Amino acid sequence: MKPKLTIVKIGGNVIDNPELLDSVLADFAKLENAKILVHGGGKLATRLGEKLGIEAKFHKGRRITDQAMLEIAVMSYAGGTNKSIVAKLQALGVNAIGLTGADGNLILSEKRAVKTVDFGFVGDVRKVDSEALRNLIQCGFVPVFAAITHDGKGKLLNTNADTIASEIAIACSDFFDTELLYCFEKPGVLANSEDGDSVISLLDAELYQRLKAENKVHSGMLPKLDNCFRALENGVSVVKVGSEKLLSDQNSGTKIQP
Amino acid sequence: MKPKLTIVKIGGNVIDNPELLDSVLADFAKLENAKILVHGGGKLATRLGEKLGIEAKFHKGRRITDQAMLEIAVMSYAGGTNKSIVAKLQALGVNAIGLTGADGNLILSEKRAVKTVDFGFVGDVRKVDSEALRNLIQCGFVPVFAAITHDGKGKLLNTNADTIASEIAIACSDFFDTELLYCFEKPGVLANSEDGDSVISLLDAELYQRLKAENKVHSGMLPKLDNCFRALENGVSVVKVGSEKLLSDQNSGTKIQP
């Protein structure tokens, strides 16, 4: 039987709230099996950019990463946020090691091809080195990933943290029984996006297709849920979406099923 | 026989010069035995601080690290500089992994006690985990350290890069035949600090004491040379000080001897 590995992704709502972050890290510390944390960026990069007079650029809600913004993302995600989380986890007795995809060539990406819009230095994941990750875990380290990867040719790339989490979970399914937990600002997938009490406890592919056809899935949820189903179709055992309570309450959030 | 391990420290003069940095990394890539790179910060932190309106504070030439400056140091050293070096080394075929002392609890420090001056969040190294470093090296990783450590209680600490390099070299002497190379802006220890051609090729403790007594050692060199002799007294086999040519030319620079 493969050993269990839990991959937890936390988003900006946790990163930007110091008390919530501390409580999430305390819950993460309590997970007894092998584990990996993936974090997004939060507002630090945007704030730093503003202070430096570098304007955040978006196309239809998606960030465009020019060279100046890439440097800010690397400094704030892989520097500020990542190392602060690592130090906090170490204080909780978790042997965290902070990483980007460039470190140990763990996540190789390709700069997104320019079609109609040039999103700049944004990477689409090509390969996760699950063997190297397994080695790190076997050495007793708990990987903590910032959402930065590289192209293997010397260029760092800003990369979607949800995708990094699902690609890690998929690749690590070679060696582990993997569980993927997406913590975000809602208590789960909602039947009615206005109503926090309308959490769908079990979402399978059929229901997802139906909800999509009825335009009942919030557009911001679509890429996240596509990542969830992709993970399930590629060897990941368990996928859940919900608030940070996913870490402490088995029955919290939405369980995604094939 | 213990396997050979080379620890290379590069300073601001290399970090701040992109062409020189590329050439140093190319030479580092050619070293065939196990290796570790330690880098200082360069001007990125100072420039970032200036842009953010945070003034660098010094006491008799030594930096005072307040909370704002610590955050800038972590972002620029552990984020910007470290990850950029890692991506460049990966492109050269070196399986670099970027680290601070907080990662994997590799370098534990203590905040420097306040005597007459409070240097702020500055760490004095207490323990390097040589076994964890050996594990990383045995997994095929090449550690690249930014000069940031932690206190194990959740606080990151700015730490002298020369000291980090010598403490790593000393600790790793348990498992390796260690060589410590300090690359800096001069071609070696100079008999006359005004004359770049006056490199002392061999400096032993006796000569060092004599030069010190005669006030012939530049004051900025004293802590570096103290680190060198401390390393030699604690198990490090070879210590050299010089320009980046140390990496490609066996006869370059100053060899320090007990």
From TrEMBL, chains A, B:
Biological processes per GO annotation: L-arginine biosynthetic process via ornithine
Principal EC category: transferase
Metabolic or biological pathway: Amino-acid biosynthesis; L-arginine biosynthesis; N(2)-acetyl-L-ornithine from L-glutamate: step 2/4
Marked site: Transition state stabilizer: K9, K224
Molecular function per GO: acetylglutamate kinase activity; ATP binding
Entry binding sites for substrate: G41, G42, R63, N158
GO CC terms, sorted: cytoplasm
Annotated catalysed reactions: N-acetyl-L-glutamate + ATP = N-acetyl-L-glutamyl 5-phosphate + ADP
EC numbers for this chain: 2.7.2.8
InterPro entries per record: AceGlu_kinase-like_sf, AcgluKinase_fam, ArgB, Asp/Glu/Uridylate_kinase
Subcellular localization(s) per the UniProt record: Cytoplasm
Domain Aspartate/glutamate/uridylate kinase: from-to ranges: 4-239
Domain of life assignment: Bacteria
Annotated family: Belongs to the acetylglutamate kinase family. ArgB subfamily.
UniProt xrefs under NCBIfam families: argB
Function: Catalyzes the ATP-dependent phosphorylation of N-acetyl-L-glutamate.
Record-given protein name: Acetylglutamate kinase
Lineage: Bacteria, Pseudomonadati, Bacteroidota, Flavobacteriia, Flavobacteriales
Gene: argB
